[in-house]
What does this fold into?
Amino acid sequence: MADKRKSKLIHAELKCGMHVKCLWLGNDAFAKLFESWDFDSDEGKFKGLAEFDSTFSYTFDFDELKDEKDLIGIDVEEGLKDAEIVSYDIEDINWQPTKKTYIRLAIVDVVIPNKEDIEITSVIATDNFGNTHETCVDFFVCLEDEDGEEIS
It folds into this structure.
């Protein structure tokens, strides 16, 4: 069996000066998901793949490259002069499936010395795609002194 290899996103500079992103599939869970995708679905376990797919221009299969240094010299833009990769940066893909979830929020150990009448009315969270979501907060406040004793 082949060694486990994570899928990667390649930020490549071409000889012509253009910059492109490429996907290099590993043999991880993301690669299996991507390979099973029909390039249309954007629901369930495939949510977000269409948007992600639009961010890169070329895909390398697992066995197309043995090592990342094999990227140098590969032409990734057919028909474009001087489209060979001359340099690159690589990042692992840490795909987190998204689904609608509800989070119970507990605010713990917020220390605001000598402040009274502080009210937290909402929480803003940012998801993996940079979208922000705001919600109201229901919680209780337990005031403690420095020794951890409850103050009424």
